[in-house]
Amino acid sequence: MKNPESLYKLIPMSNLYRFGQFVLDPCRRTLSRADSPVSVTPKAFDVLFFLAQNPNRLVTKEELLQAVWGDAFVEEGNLTQYISHLRKALGENSEDARLIVTINRKGYQFTAHVTVAEAVDTAKRATLRATATETSKTDAPSVKFRTKEKATKSPPPRLRLREWFALAALFSVIAAAFWLYWSYRPPVTLSATDTIVLADVKNETSDPVFDDALDTALRYEMAQTPYLNILGIDKVVGTLAQLKLPSTTRLTPEVARQICGKTNSKLVISQSIGDVGNGYRLQMRALDCGSGATLAKEQAEIGNRSEVVHELGVTAAHLRAKMREPADSLARFNQPLEKALSSSPEALQATTQGLKLSLAGEAEGALKLYQRAVELDPSLALAYLRMGATYLFLGNTELSVTSYTRAYQLRDRLTEKDRLGAEISYYSNVIGDWEKEYSSVLRFLEIFPRDVFGRTNLREAFVHLGQPARAADEAAEVARLRPSAYYFGSAIQSIRFASKFNEAKSWLAKADALKFDSLLIRRERLIVAFATGDRKNVEKILQEEERSSYREDFLREHALIEIQQGSFQSAERLRVQASGPASKAGNAGKWVISAALEDAEVGMDEQARRYESEAVGSPLARNDRIALAQALARSGRAAEAGKLADQISAERLEDTLVQHYFIPTIRAAVRLQQHDPAAAIEVLRGAAKYDLAFTGFDYLYPAYIRGLAYLELGDGRSAAAQFQKLIDNPGFSVRHVTGPLAWLQLGRAQKMMGDQAATRKSYETFLDLWKNADPDIPIYQQAKAEYAKLRK
């Protein structure tokens, strides 16, 4: 990024610029007329210097603004004022005599004839003059009267006196140079990619509450504007590890500067608070990462404790102005902190300590602190947002919904950034309106294009709105911006959904190289290996996970692999192993329903109904109830399925996927049981947009049911298109029985179309996938019988 210093980098500083009676000296930053100094401001000098470097040509306003102010925001009116100041300094009293001519609506032209001459150092010129004087005396006739005594005694006192004057002048020049630099040094300017490290507060009061409360307040204030790019907490923790420091290390200005240098950030913002009589003094500084020099500072005297949070916000806003944040940005992104957060330091302290426990993986402890925060201040919306996320992490959907709803109700108190964040969380986690979530995310990213929260939620929108390729791109970009096990796992899963298996393998290799590990990364490694036919690696992973803390999860994943190959009995044994006394809460019911749906799809209706009866009446999460309704419909219990679907629909009127994916799919399955395929197709017409959505039914169920309806109508071509959709998107269908069944159904559709060669190939593909299938599975028996007829 350019700044005013770039004006001087390529210019010999010993040059003098002469025009008329004027001399411009860039080294001393002086302007003189007939050896008399002319007073100009530092910025006016920079403007004149650039014009003098570019005489007798049009210099556009944009060119001049960029050269003198760089990328900092400066209004055109400011430039006009500097030009007016220069004209007065140059003694321009009429248009005809002007050295600086305005070119209407374009810029300016410096009309003077400029000569450039090398300046001679002042001390050097003085020495030359002294030498010349002594030489002239030596050459004059009077020299012959000089005696040795005079030659040795008289000159030294005069030389010493001149040396003292020269030294005094030199020190004056140096002092003036330092004063000019510190008085008129370029202001702090930031580019769009410059990051800032926030140091922890230096609390010099006797009140320990300020230790945590003011850290949160400062971060919140600085993060509310898109002008500043604050280094993320995860980046800070990761850099502390690189510096071999504990994650709990206090970020003193010195430690913050180390982090600043390590992350190639721009500057550090530090703050301190101390006692002043009955009040406090708050100081805030922007520090250079390398030298620690103060680039900008602000301070405030605070009368009492209840005003500290408010005054911190005001002081930080003043510092933002000194960091050249535009006035319109300051006006828009300046929600008072006591409103956006709380005037209670204790409430902010509890919120901050809760976040620290969350980052340390202690969700239960964090939850207690967030609850304490909202007890202290029931209007602290930020604490409700964090409670919602924590409850969701712990699997308590009901209390998560309550917390997110309260944050949404309080959203007008929040900064614009967090108000949009509260809307995004409410639309996605409370009412499930993914279209509204998407709109809010787009508005968020218009204002905060670099924010990882926004890009993560854009990925979520694409995932749930049936756009897996775009979701994969967003997830990969987030992982590149903020590499971590969490974001890598999300990226790999999204890329797998998009059926980009080679790319997923590449990201898995990167995760290994970076030593990123999580359940999601391990699970995706197994799924990708199975989807690409790497049986050796599948066996290796399953053996390794037998001894890991994720044993239960991988027993269930192994069961899904067995189902894909038609080995239902083996899958049942694996699920029994996984459902022991130590199994995770809620998992057993989920997998019972999954087994019921799988059995129904292959014609084992009696076994499916036993599983369904086991689940009916049990307390089930929303997605489990949806899966149960689908299983009931596919196993022939149409009336029960319809009733449950109606209940779910009434509860989730604004839920995009409930209304446009789940309920249409269940009702279409009911219509198939009633032998009304045309009605099934009509019911599913609006679902096509969401066929590729990730929903928990992540296997294109609407397309599969639609294909069955077309088969029943005898429309082979339309049916084939639906089943081909499953085959073309193996990243979705790889974990459900409809994946291999799509080949069988495609073969049936192709037979209707009269394409015998394609029919045989599709049947053979299915039978090869199920070569080790249980022999008594009804749909497998049907497939073998149908294939036998094809060979005759």
SSE order and pairing:
Blueprint: H1 6-9, E1 15-19, E2 22-25, E3 30-33, E4 36-38, H2 42-53, E5 58-60, H3 61-69, H4 76-89, E6 100-103, E7 107-110, E8 115-118, H5 122-139, H6 148-153, H7 155-184, E9 196-198, E10 202-204, H8 210-223, H9 233-242, H10 253-262, E11 267-276, E12 279-288, E13 294-302, H11 308-322, H12 327-332, H13 337-340, H14 345-359, H15 363-376, H16 381-393, H17 397-409, H18 416-431, H19 434-447, H20 452-464, H21 468-481, H22 485-497, H23 501-513, H24 519-531, H25 535-545, H26 551-564, H27 568-578, H28 587-601, H29 605-615, H30 622-634, H31 638-651, H32 656-673, H33 677-683, H34 701-713, H35 716-728, H36 730-733, H37 738-753, H38 756-769, H39 778-790
Parallel strand pairs: 9-11, 10-11
Antiparallel strand pairs: 1-2, 1-8, 2-3, 3-4, 5-7, 6-7, 11-12, 12-13
Helix pairs in contact: 2-4, 8-11, 8-14, 14-15, 15-16, 16-17, 17-18, 18-19, 19-20, 20-21, 21-22, 22-23, 22-24, 23-24, 24-25, 26-27, 27-28, 28-29, 28-30, 29-30, 30-31, 30-32, 31-32, 32-33, 32-34, 33-34, 34-35, 34-37, 35-37, 37-38, 38-39
Short note summarizing the structure:
The protein has 792 residues and is an alpha+beta fold. Helices cover 62% and strands 8% of the residues. The protein contains 39 helices and 13 strands.
In words, what does this structure look like?
- This protein has 792 residues and is an alpha+beta fold.
- The strands form three sheets. It has a five-stranded antiparallel beta sheet, covered by helices on one side. Strands 9, 10, 11, 12 and 13 form a five-stranded mixed beta sheet that branches. It has a three-stranded antiparallel beta sheet with strand order 5-7-6.
- Helix 35 runs antiparallel to helix 37 (738-753).
- The longest helix has 30 residues, at 155-184.
- The model is unreliable at 121-159 and 176-186 (pLDDT under 50).
